[in-house]
Design a protein that fits this description.
Strands 1, 2, 3, 4, 5, 7, 8, 9, 11 and 12 form a ten-stranded mixed beta sheet that branches. The chain has a two-stranded parallel ribbon with strand order 6-10. By secondary structure, it is α/β, with parallel strands linked by helices. It folds into two domains: 127 residues, D-Maltodextrin-Binding Protein, domain 2 (3-Layer(aba) Sandwich), CATH 3.40.190; 106 residues, D-Maltodextrin-Binding Protein, domain 2 (3-Layer(aba) Sandwich).
Amino acid sequence: MAGVLAVFSTSALADVKTITIAGDPCSVPLITKLAEAYASKNKEFKAEVSSFSCTLGVYKAANGEADMGVSTQNGLGSNLPKGAVNKVVTKSPIVLIVNKANLVDNLSYEQVQGIFSGRIKNWKEVNGPDAEIKNVMLAPCVKHTISKQVVMYGEINQLTPGKKVNPVEYTNIMVAENEDAIGQQIYGYESKDVKVLRIDGVLPDENTMKSEYTFYQDFNVVTKGEPKGVVKEFINFAYSPEGMAVIKSMKHVPAK
């Protein structure tokens, strides 16, 4: 477990209804923001958010170790543990980020294919500097989505942290510290120290979703059986206009 974050109101602890949420690094930032927003209006609400690897949080929810599991993964609904129920709250866009010193602002779909297949190895091949492209690929679920839609990864030069780290946080750090790096990140989780690339001239939003920009993952909320009580109320908040405002502020796209 990477850590536990408590999100709660200022009411008396005896009156607080606590729920436990287990997620992966790609889902924890958004679910934490939603929990903070709900706690600000519901003084009896408290959420304890824990971060685990990949879909471990989903299995913890399915076997009752957590009230809710969250994960960004496409097709999870057809691969759930027995008795688990999944709701797709939103879509998490995947973007490519580079160092701010990099002159490249846009890549074509074909250039993205070339980079991740290993056919394009130097930034000068995509109108950038004469420097070897260094790939930062830390988040497994993000890598899986890109590889399915573009091409399976070929022989590419990778930057690795050399230790176990938070993949979302360290994608930003490693790209910010390496001028020749390119990273894959959940849109809205990028730091101010990196630059987001357009793909075929567009960025992900409600207008470009699927028709022009196709790199998305489902943001899944999983419970053991149908959600009830405060868990159901919190999920309903996520679907409400207030919850969707939080989702949009994190650059995620409401599911349609």
